[in-house]
Specification:
Layout (H helix, E strand, L loop, with lengths): L3 H10 L8 H15 L1 H21 L4 H16 L9 H18 L3 H18 L3 H17 L3 H14 L7 H20 L3 H12 L22 H14 L3 H19 L21 H11 L19 H19 L5 H17 L4 H25 L1 H21 L3 H15 L1
Helix pairs in contact: 1-2, 2-3, 3-4, 3-5, 4-5, 5-6, 6-7, 7-8, 8-9, 9-10, 10-11, 11-12, 11-13, 12-18, 13-15, 13-17, 14-15, 15-16, 15-17, 16-17, 17-18
Protein name: Tetratricopeptide repeat protein
Organism: Embleya hyalina
InterPro entries: TPR-like_helical_dom_sf
Length: 425
Amino acid sequence: MANADVVARARVALFDVERLSAERLVGIYRVLGEVDGPRHYARRLAVALHTTGHVFARHGADMGLTLGRLTEAIELCRRLDPAEHRDRDAVLRGMQTTHQWALYRYGRRGEALAVRRELVALARAGGGERRVLAEAMLGLAVGLVEDGRDDEAESLFAEAVAVTAGLRRDHRLTADRHWYVTAHAGHLATRGRFAEAAEVYAPLLGGVGDGGDGGLAVAVDAMPDDRRVPILLYGAHLLAAAQRRVEGRAVFARAVETYRRGVDPGPVHAPVRGRFRGSVHSLSHDRLAHHLAVFGAADEPADVAHATTRDHWSPTRLDRYVRAETALRGALDGPTAGAAERLVLERRLNVRAAFAWMPRAAVIDRLLPAFAKAVDHARAFAVADPDAGAPLLVRALTDHALLLAGVGRAAEGVADLEEAGAVYG
């Protein structure tokens, strides 16, 4: 039992709670819990334990200490009365999200996947937002892909799309639903099932197929300004891969026109969406990198779900993706790489660089020259070998145009995109 002096100091310390570290709060709530009863401080202790566990995991602290803090926090949270703590399930989901991340970080993949399954179960049982359920499904599906369990993952990708259908009142979901559709289509494409992938993705394009969900997907015209062109470009890619080249050319032409319209919006009074002028409507380079990774998924190892955002990747897979840069540079500098292989390696390096956080000036100084050089290399290869080089040139040109738009220089990218359209068609 804590002595009176210790208890008094703990109570006084709480008057300045905002300045206390989470680690100190853990000790204070333990002391006061002995006096006033654990129930009075259970939630606050759980939150403090979760915070310290999160910090420990991010900084590579001792595994036993980190996981001990997180599991204790979770058990305390489970015992909270949901009638008294109405947000208990949301708090528990947040703790479990940190827990699975830490388990992956420490190499305990089986346990981490089990936690992702529990997150899906919690979301199903909660009867709350369908967006929460879709997010949990996507996280579990990505974990399954990483472990080579593609068949099980596929049903979750599809269900996440179905779960999010028709929720017109949820503005955030309406804006973000294309992530789920892209994840499903991208997974099918990675497995070589291009016809199915094109059907799944078609509703996003508006007027191309129905994707099997009754047209409930949010079409590209309803997407936020900065996402339209990448969505159309990926749709054209899937249609071409599915041997639907006429439709693919039409969608690619829409991408070019959408991009051009964003640069030249017409009269000031005209209500034009999709402008690329200014940073507010520009696609940030790290978000753009997701779209570039989707376009290049076939070039990467199959155990990374490249059609998903990196928020869902396990930290070990994310590290491996980033650390592959050294091997890629070695292969690029090696004497055995052919011209086509060198273009693919160069692009994989550029996409990895685009994922890294950097200020806009660094994007202009570092990324733009690298993407421009890739265009020059692809153009030279396309001249030497038109059949093999054309698709690589199209991709290099669209990459460069999108990056230019992302830094507010879309006008310079129009010629690239128009050239890509001419080569594509």
